[in-house]
């Protein structure tokens, strides 16, 4: 018929039996005005094509409208859900933060008690496991809370609030800091507490007096505070304030030493608030300034805490005095003196960094088995980062952070970049690998993150340029553009790094001292170098006159066996001291001027293989085949910390000789230490 | 030190698979059968893994030789062949990463089944390094091969443990080895 009916003929043919749609009739008639015959015909059948179309369109429009309405409703509901979820999350975070704080407080309390007990009785108080609280689980199951601690805990919380109020009043942080620092200094350096009582009395009395003065004001503030807030935990705190005030009043006058402790507890608490969870590096001053009795201010504070948490872990403090977290507080006091000293000793020699990729140098380096790679810090003594320096001086507890897996065979040596968080490892698999310590791949276990090497240097085929056998050690001086190498062929060679070809000078000791195993530049005298030999001697040479200056004292008889072999010699960065690591488990300290043995100690259970001194010259790190790395305080020559790292690898089964750690190193400017293992792993500690 | 030796004796008295392989290689690198034969009681997965590590290690030596020659301005001019040195590096780095990753190989004394399957793909990629070296840098390949017989070792290794199919072994030396497994002759 016509086009309109064309497609629709289909319809009228197909639903003769379809019922209903009586309403179509009149509709059809109205719509079919333009279609005379077709409309009439369709009306007869009670379904007209246009009518149907119209009906369908109408229905469809209706459905669309409804759907739009539903969509709108749905969106609204979803927005509401999101909002509620957000709120819930906020509440959870709030709860978590508060729980965290409680844990910090409990831990601080334990610290305090230990300290107090130690001072009082001279022995350690056995409190069980005293590790800093972990924040992964929200259950506070790692603390043993004794009944009497409860009141003290609330007391602490009260103290915290007090602090807050003091801030408001204007009794600034700095005044408290200065006073508590003095107190702390006194506390730290005296083992006899009673002598200082008087001084402390004065301090704390003035403190407590002013504290009491503020109390009246605070009580009224507390009253307001409790009125405004409805949260349970805030209410709890309000009760504790009242309790605190009574407790403080009772306690403050007769027992001022307690007050001092609480002041210190407050002090600690300030640290605790401003430190990140589990990470000792972040510091921010003035977190307390955001506190306030109002709930909104409280939330600001918590938001601040969260901000603090998000700071990158290696951000040094900006200007505030360094504030370690409570886990390091006991040592902090002892370190204050060290801190001052450290600042006055900028490193005197400029040593610099060798990149394996430097073609000229690369060809000088040793054998297929890279046994020696020496790199030391480049000291920008003028632009030295003081706060980073402080951190290094203060860092006392190191924790394993990264495990670098990529080498196929044992790692023989490692070196840090002078300024960047970059490590280079050299391995028996003939490669050097460069690692970026900041870009880490997340792994399941957070304790050991895997780091991918950025680049792998493959170039070593054999010794070149003068040495005829393996090069065991290198030492580089950027200030003088000199490279020193010692080799299994018995010679020590001095090179000019700008023109590589012939060695500047050769110290061919004619094998009289044996094979040099290790060499280092003497930091305190740039023209000297110290080398240790396989027969057990260590000598200092003058590089300019090419003469041996002196041989450091060593008690060896003529029938010396292999156990007197010296594995490593290093020069102290600031003092005229050389330190040697021996096969017979000893570490020995020698004076460079007299050659006398200053100190000798048995350091490990098996041969000591490697030594490293931290850039400030305060700590010595030694690695040994007994799988342990030990950190020593150079002043007291005592072991501060020990790590067990790297399982053993078997050498030839003939000798039954097990190797474990080949090298250790400090980062010159950042808080990293690394160890190189015979198990092809390098571990980095922070 | 007596103490050290005493304690050593008490521990595991058999060297690890890796040391065993390296010992045999050092002793005689042309005695391929000895190198490939696992000691009794050795888990096959671990054995394969350790061998693959050793191959990657030694292949670095080949890569070093190649990198001096494989430059844009040397023998082969077509640009698409030059990325071969990049491919070589990338493969070796990737293999190093894979073989050392704690995710796939958490322990060196037992290998997960799923990871064993992946060893084959590593072998294929490594094989391409060999074939490139053979076809484009024959002199270097030949010198290196005569030094340490690495290709022979590798081919026999993949054949023995069925890590790659024979079709993939396109380097035409060692045909007798490639044919020995099945008895059909390769074209």
TrEMBL record, chain A:
One of its GO terms (cellular component) is cytoplasm. GO terms for molecular function: armadillo repeat domain binding; calmodulin binding; protein phosphatase 2A binding; protein-containing complex binding. Residues 48-176 form the Striatin N-terminal domain. SUPFAM superfamilies: WD40 repeat-like. SMART domains: WD40. It is found in: Cytoplasm. Keywords: Calmodulin-binding, Coiled coil, Cytoplasm, Phosphoprotein, Repeat, WD repeat. WD repeats lie at residues 404-445, 464-496, 601-642. CDD domains: WD40. Residues 67-115 form a coiled coil. Residues 124-150, 270-296, 311-331 are annotated as: Disordered. Belongs to the WD repeat striatin family. InterPro entries: Striatin_N, WD40/YVTN_repeat-like_dom_sf, WD40_PAC1, WD40_repeat_CS, WD40_repeat_dom_sf, WD40_rpt, WD_repeat_striatin. Pfam families: Striatin, WD40. This is Striatin N-terminal domain-containing protein.
UniProtKB/TrEMBL annotation, chain B:
Zn(2+) binds at residues 70, 132, 137. Signal peptide: none annotated. It comes from the Eukaryota. Keywords: Metal-binding, Zinc. SUPFAM superfamilies: Mob1/phocein. Pfam families: Mob1_phocein (PF03637). This is MOB-like protein phocein. It comes from Capra hircus (Goat).
């Amino acid at each position: 018929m016509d086009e309109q009916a064309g497609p629709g003929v289909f319809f009228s043919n197909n639903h003769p039996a379809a019922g209903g749609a009586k309403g179509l009739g009149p509709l059809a008639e109205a719509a079919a005005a333009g279609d005379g015959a077709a409309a009439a015909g369709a009306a007869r059948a009670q379904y007209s094509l246009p009518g149907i179309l119209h009906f369908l369109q109408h229905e469809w429009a209706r459905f669309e409208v409804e759907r739009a309405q539903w969509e709108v409703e749905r969106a609204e509901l979803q927005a509401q859900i999101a909002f509620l979820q957000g709120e819930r999350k906020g509440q959870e975070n709030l709860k978590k933060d508060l729980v965290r704080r409680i844990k910090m407080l409990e831990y601080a309390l334990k610290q305090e008690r230990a300290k107090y007990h130690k001072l009082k009785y001279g022995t350690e108080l056995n409190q069980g496991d005293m590790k800093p609280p972990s924040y992964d689980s929200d259950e506070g199951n790692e603390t043993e809370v004794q009944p009497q601690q409860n009141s003290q805990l609330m007391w602490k919380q009260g103290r915290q609030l007090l602090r807050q109020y003091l801030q408001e009043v204007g009794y600034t942080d700095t005044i408290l800091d200065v006073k508590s620092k003095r107190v702390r200094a006194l506390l730290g350096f005296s083992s006899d507490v009673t002598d200082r009582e008087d001084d402390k009395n004065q301090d704390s009395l003035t403190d407590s007096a002013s504290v009491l003065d503020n109390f009246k004001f605070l009580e009224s503030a507390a009253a307001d505070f409790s009125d405004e807030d409805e949260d349970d935990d805030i209410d709890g705190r309000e009760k504790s304030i009242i309790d605190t005030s009574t407790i403080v009043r009772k306690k403050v006058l007769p027992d001022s030493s307690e007050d001092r402790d609480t002041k210190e507890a407050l002090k600690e608490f300030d640290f605790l608030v401003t430190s990140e969870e589990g990470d000792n590096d972040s510091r921010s001053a003035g977190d307390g300034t955001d506190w306030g009795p109002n709930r909104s201010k409280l939330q600001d504070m918590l938001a601040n805490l969260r901000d603090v948490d998000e700071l990158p872990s290696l951000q040094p403090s900006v200007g505030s005095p360094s504030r370690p977290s409570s886990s390091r507080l006991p040592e902090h006091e002892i370190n204050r003196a060290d801190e001052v000293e450290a600042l006055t000793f900028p490193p005197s020699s400029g040593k610099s960094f060798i990149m394996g990729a430097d073609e000229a140098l690369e060809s000088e380096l040793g054998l297929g088995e890279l046994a020696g790679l020496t790199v030391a810090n480049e000291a920008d003594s003028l632009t030295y980062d003081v706060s980073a320096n402080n951190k290094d001086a203060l860092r006392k507890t190191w924790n394993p952070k990264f495990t670098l897996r990529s080498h196929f065979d044992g790692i023989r040596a490692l070196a840090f970049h002078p300024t960047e968080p970059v490590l280079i490892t050299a391995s028996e698999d003939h490669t050097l690998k460069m690692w970026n310590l900041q870009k880490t791949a997340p792994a399941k276990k957070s304790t050991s993150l895997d780091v991918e090497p950025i680049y792998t240097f493959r170039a070593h085929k054999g010794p070149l340029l003068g040495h005829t056998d393996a090069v065991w050690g290198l030492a580089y001086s950027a200030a003088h553009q000199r490279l020193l190498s010692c080799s299994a062929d018995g010679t020590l060679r001095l090179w000019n790094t700008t023109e590589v070809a012939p060695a500047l000078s050769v110290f061919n000791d004619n094998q009289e001292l044996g094979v040099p195993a290790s060499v280092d530049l003497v930091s305190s005298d740039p023209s000297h170098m110290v080398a240790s030999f396989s027969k057990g001697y260590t000598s200092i040479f003058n590089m300019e006159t090419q003469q041996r200056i002196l041989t450091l004292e060593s008690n060896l008889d003529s029938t010396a066996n292999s156990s007197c072999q010296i594995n490593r010699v290093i020069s102290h960065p600031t003092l005229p001291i050389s330190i040697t690591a021996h096969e017979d488990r000893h570490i020995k300290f020698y004076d460079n001027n007299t050659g006398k043995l200053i100190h000798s100690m048995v350091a490990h259970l098996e041969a000591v293989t490697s030594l490293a001194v931290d850039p400030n010259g305060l700590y010595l790190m030694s690695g040994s085949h007994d799988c342990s790395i030990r950190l020593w305080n150079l002043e007291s020559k005592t072991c501060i910390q020990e790590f067990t790292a790297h399982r053993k690898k078997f050498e030839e089964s003939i000798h039954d000789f097990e190797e474990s750690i080949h090298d250790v190193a400090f980062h010159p400017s950042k808080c990293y230490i690394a160890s190189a293992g015979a198990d092809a792993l390098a571990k980095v500690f922070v | 030190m007596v103490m050290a030796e005493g304690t050593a004796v008490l521990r595991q008295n058999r060297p690890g698979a890796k040391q065993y392989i390296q010992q045999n290689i050092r002793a005689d690198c042309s005695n391929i059968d000895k190198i490939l034969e696992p000691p009794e009681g050795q888990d096959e997965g671990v054995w394969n893994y350790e061998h693959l590590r050793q191959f990657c290690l030694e292949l670095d030596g080949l890569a070093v030789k190649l990198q001096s020659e494989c430059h844009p301005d040397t023998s082969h001019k077509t640009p698409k062949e030059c990325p071969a040195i990049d491919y070589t590096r990338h493969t070796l780095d990737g293999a190093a990463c894979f073989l050392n990753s704690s995710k796939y190989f958490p322990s060196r004394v037992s290998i997960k089944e799923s990871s064993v399957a992946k060893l084959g793909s590593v072998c294929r990629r490594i094989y391409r390094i060999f074939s490139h070296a053979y076809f484009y840098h024959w002199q270097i390949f030949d010198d290196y091969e005569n030094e340490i017989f690495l290709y022979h070792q590798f081919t026999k290794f993949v054949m023995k443990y069925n890590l790659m199919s024979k079709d993939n072994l396109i380097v035409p030396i060692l045909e007798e080895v490639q044919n020995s497994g099945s008895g059909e002759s390769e074209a």
